[in-house]
Amino acid sequence: MNTATPSRRTRRWAGSRAAWLVLGLVAVLALALGAARSSEARTPEERIDAVAKTLKCPVCPGESLYESRNNVSLNLKAEIARQVRAGQTDDEIRAGIVARYGDSVLLVPRAQGVDAVVWVLPEAVLVASMAALVVVFRRWRREGATGAPTEEDRALVADALAAESREGST
Known about the structure:
Elements: H1 8-36, H2 44-53, H3 71-85, H4 90-101, H5 116-143, H6 151-169
């Protein structure tokens, strides 16, 4: 065997490493771009809409303040507009509305306490699933398929074919 040429296994491993490296770089780049992207509203109208999109209508089930045309929602949007013009931050405005109506008006759960589970659970399931796949694929590779059927396999196939031909002839 020529030691200068890499084996198929070595080439496959190198290709796999390169693919994982590229995938990792793409993921890091996407996360960095997402984190760096400014999602802050710039004008007062954009801020009003941004706050209204994060709060539920206290009367209409499943609708945000932004979407709802209910009188309560319209009054709350007007209140948000007054508070934005008064110079309050978005978090202060949300806190005031939550103090009045409770945590149930938040469309986006807080990342504290029990609500943090909503943010952590999907990532934990994803990591556990990926780890399980890695374990299973490594086990399959380690056990490997021999490719050649055993005598027991041949006997099972012969029995199945014989049973099938008997059923077909009756």
